[in-house]
Design goal:
187 residues
Length: 187
């Protein structure tokens, strides 16, 4: 049931964001969307980590396609490492550190974290991540998974886009959203 709710939230964010895309694109700070048919696991987490630090891998679908490999190469280049496009512990450690710093900064801006943005997985960081996850109905863990990151980094971008746009939502778009909600609940 919780998985259905999380998928519903991510899909709803995607649909609502598409209604307000011009404003969303201008206000999105590290925001990204997960494909509705995304394959959960390490690759999806990796894609979301890369997006958080400014290396969007195209559609976040949990699959190692050409877009993901190219994004990995770009990230490897930024670290002055060989550009293989493959997974490697040589750059995954620095990537996790950079993502955790961004998460700490974001949680600090929300007044949920009062430590320094050092990228380390300390008690204060774990506590803040769990507190945020619980407040959003996510699985309470201190893991930086794709669902957590999408919720954290899309929340303010979506809110900003809704506040800054005067685009009207037409009835057809609302009907589509309702239809999708019903389909998800039937899964």
């Amino acid at each position: 049931m919780l998985k259905k709710i999380n998928m519903f939230l991510l899909l709803s964010i995607g649909i609502i964001t598409s209604l307000y895309m011009p404003a969303f694109a201008q206000s999105a700070d590290n925001a990204f969307l997960i494909a509705a048919n995304a394959k959960e696991g390490k690759v999806l987490n990796l894609q979301s980590w890369l997006a958080v630090i400014g290396f969007p891998a195209g559609e976040l679908d949990g699959r190692t396609g050409p877009g993901t490999r190219e994004t990995i190469k770009e990230y490897q280049k930024s670290l002055n490492q060989a550009q293989t496009g493959g997974l490697s512990a040589m750059w995954e450690g620095p990537l996790e550190l950079a993502v955790r710093k961004k998460v700490q900064d974001k949680l600090k801006s929300m007044q949920l974290y009062d430590g320094s943005a050092d990228g380390l997985k300390g008690d204060k960081t774990s506590s803040a991540i769990k507190k945020y996850a619980a407040s959003k109905g996510l699985t309470v863990t201190d893991t930086l998974n794709a669902t957590f990151l999408a919720t954290l980094f899309n929340e303010s971008a979506l809110q900003n886009s809704i506040e800054t746009t005067d685009t009207a939502v037409d009835v057809a778009n609302v009907d589509i959203l309702i239809m999708l909600i019903v389909q998800i609940m039937l899964i």
